[in-house]
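Protocol step 4 of 6: structure prediction from sequence.
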Amino acid sequence: MSTSTTSAPPPGTQDPPPKTRQGPERPVTSRRGWRRALRRDWQLYSLAVLPLLFFVVFRYLPMIGNVIAFRRFEPGGSILGEQWVGLRYVRMFLTDPTFWQVFRNTLWLGGLTLVFCFPIPIVLALLLNEVRRRSLKRFVQSVSYLPHFLSVVIVAGITMQMLATDGPVNHVLDRFGHDPVRFIQEPGWFRTIYVGSEIWQTAGWGTILYLAALTTIDEDLYEAARIDGASRWRQIWHVTLPGIRPTMITLLILNIGTFLAVGFEKVLLLYNPLTYPTADVVPTYLYRAGVESNSFSYAAAIGLFEAIIGLVLVTGANQLSRRTVGTSLW
């Protein structure tokens, strides 16, 4: 009996082992894929050119002007200021009692706007979602979001005419034996007027976003809830609200980011020196200090302070949302 044996090849004649893909080659591959996608879909990518230019020109380049918050700026001089003054203007508004009164007014108006204007579109969307007559649903939806397309000047004009001393509201109060109320001239009424006009103007438009989110909820979830014996309220609580929760969280974070940016145009049109104690907010104070008084460096310091607070609020709300409900913007 003979046995066959295989002898090993002499050293140096073996085939080299196959090369494995190394880590540094991956970015090259991804870069080539991005370039290939850009050449293939350049028409689609070209649509982003104008929006990007808009943000670069009107959002990012003006940030350079924040340097005048630390430099003395004089109209007609250098665009970046004449002399470095450090934190002089920051100390000025931090020790100014008028600024802190304006800051408190801004917190009040921003908080009331967030508390009332944020949940009302959600409630309105849930109510419209329960309406089965399509014609009635379309009519209510159209009437509710039409005020969004009105100019702020028109909304402020309608509000002032309705609440004037000889306006329709005071005529109704006179019919019930009440004396005329000077709504526009009394500081105590300004916050109610502002928040009420905001609800009337923005509630319908916000409802559209939630109605669009409601269409993405699977009908099988409602069917399963009905089989389990859930009432209509239970279906809304356990199916509808969780289905639109990502949209709610996203809009809430965005609203918190603009917490201090109270509607400048509407406040400017509705307020007057008699209502300054409750109506004067940071944007209007910046307008008077920067444009009317030519204190541009002082106004820039306050604006930078407001922007930092807004950034902290957005970041904090985003982190809190991610840790509590698992939904965030980034």
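Step 5 (inspection) to follow. The mean pLDDT is 84.
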